[in-house]
Amino acid sequence: MPSRAEELQKLMNADAATEKDCQAFLQDIALHLVPFRVREENILVKGREESSRPGDSDFCVSVEVDNGAMGRRFAYVWEVKAPQKYLFQQDKAANRLRPTDELYSENQLLNYVAELETSRNFRQKFQLTGSEDEVRPGGIIIGRKDRIVKGLDEGDESLVGLARNAFTTRESFLWEPAEIRVRTWDWVLEQLQQDEQGGVAPMNSNMVRTLNPEGLLAFAREMSLAGDELSFRAAVNSAYTAAELKVIPGGWNGKHPTPRDVIRMSAESAGRQDIALLFRKLSAIRNRSVHVFDVHVTEADAVHAVEAAERFCQKWDELLGGAGMDGTDGSFG
Fold first, then answer.
1. In this predicted model, what pLDDT tens digit does every residue of 25-78 receive, in sequence order?
2. What phi-psi label fits residue 271: left (phi over 0), alpha (psi between -120 and 50 degrees) or beta?
3. CA dihedral angle for residue 149, residue 154, residue 158, residue 159, rounded to 10 degrees
4. CA–CA dist 129, 126 (Å, integer)
5. Rounded Cα distance, 133 and 207, in Å
6. Rounded to the nearest 5°, which phi and psi values hold at 233?
7. CA triplet 99, 105, 107: central angle to 5 degrees?
8. 163 CB neighbour count, 10 Å cutoff
9. Could you say which of 1.10.40.30, 2.40.50.140, 1.10.3720.10, 1.20.120.330 is the CATH number of the domain covering 213-320?
């Protein structure tokens, strides 16, 4: 029996448009359609084709984010176009590309968000019961990597640079300020494949393939250079997780002692308050990245988090390699 990823790949490679059939697979990757790290239990509602006056949005998912008290709730709205569609086409000017009519749905998406924000039925269905709960744009899923530009699959490699420029320009001046992510169906397929292979807990829009501090720090450094806020948030979260895994190999299970408890006790025992302070600062950046959405996470934040995590991991290794927590061999007493 074919896997879900194999079923999606077959639809992606079909000649006819398969938009409606592909929509169903977004239920499988709802965790990845939220721009920060969440667990399955954070998902409140996920559903297809929500009606509004401007039309029907294609997919929505709502989540609750823990803030230490009641938590805040957000619904993310996604617009979906078929894998067979293109993102860009040539403009009248030979050295310029313009979005296809399908990609112009970015405007449609913003209209849906504005309408659903005030819809009592939508807010009730997606459990946005608090006055500060929000409806936000998720993004657009369209096309495939081999269908970025009409004509590109006909061998005109000169369009590759134009496509990259068209995409990054639009991302910088339109999508990023509006918090819209644009993904191809290849990205959806990759999330399905990783989840089916066991994967790891999703971190923002990307998956960290190697759950060890070194691999996470390498991923964090890469994301800090990506140039978009989603990647900066991923960098911060990965850097924090690297530090946490350094303290509790295999990951914290949510019970006591917490990573902060372990660090505090170890630092006090060794007289290394600088290590505890470094982790607190890293935690503060991470908490803002995960829980605060009206303040941007910048490249400077991402770089600072990565550097703080690297220093912390180095100092923690030094701490454990010293006299030890029990005064003997570096083990906990």
1. 999 999 899 987 777 888 999 987 666 555 567 899 999 886 555 678 999 999
2. left
3. 0
4. 9
5. 27
6. -65, -40
7. 100
8. 15
9. 1.20.120.330
